[in-house]
Amino acid sequence: MQDDAYARLIQNASDASKTTDDTPAFSGSVNGRQPYPLEKWNPSHCGYVDIAIDRDGRWFHEGSEIKRAELVSLFAGLLRREEDGCYYLVTPVEKVEVSVALHPLMVVDATPMGSGAEQVLALVLNTGGIFQLDLTVGLHAEPRAAGAAYIKLPNGLTALFTRAAWYRLVEIADDEGCVVSGKERFSLLGDDPGRD
Question: What separation in angstroms does the CA of 14 have from each of 9, 10, 19, 62, 153?
Fold first, then answer.
């Protein structure tokens, strides 16, 4: 793709994300915004754009890191993984392939919310989204990251725990190496049904 395709992608993404000041934050969205209807958007494949996500969840365009958090958050909301195993940024009018080194998103914090039987673990993503640890997202071992875990997200996406977020889980784990969220127990050792 040409350089102007990157600018066009940003414009199309901005057009698709028009919101008002009263738009609420959404739990269960990769960027904390109302999720885009990616499942309804089926534009034609427009090729590859030189956007890459490295092993640490940093986004690059033509080798330079995209440092604007708002732009990374916007792109994250447009990202999906398709049945061919490839990652695409999708707008209503175009679909471009991007490169992902390991996992496209990162869990940067795990915060207990509530108390007692109602306590859940809120998993905060590097792109502004928050997911509750439950059986849907689960904890799945990632041998390519020294045994840390990743979670499963909508649109075929995954998020790997950063070292700091993983250590936070280890700190709050019980003597059996488990954490509780909702009323479910999740093993950090990989031996419960919530982990692969």
Answer: 8, 6, 10, 20, 23
43-85 pLDDT tens trace:
999 899 999 999 999 999 999 999 999 999 999 999 999 999 9
User: What is the rounded CA–CA span in Å between residue 7 and residue 113?
Assistant: 40
CATH number for the domain formed by residue range(s) 3-100: 3.10.540.10
Query: Do the domains 3-100 and 105-187 sit in the same CATH topology, yes or no?
Result: no
Other beta carbons within 10 angstroms of residue 13's beta carbon come to: 20
Q: Are strands 130-132 and 87-90 parallel, antiparallel or unpaired?
A: unpaired
- Asked whether the beta carbons of 96 and 84 are under 8 A apart, the reply is no
Note the CATH number of domain 105-187. Answer: 2.30.270.10
For the chain, give the number of residues.
196
Angle at CA 176, nearest 5°, toward 174 and 178?
Answer: 60
Helix-then-strand count for the chain, H and E: 3, 14
What is the H or E stretch that residue 51 is in?
strand 45-53
Residue 192 one-letter amino acid:
D
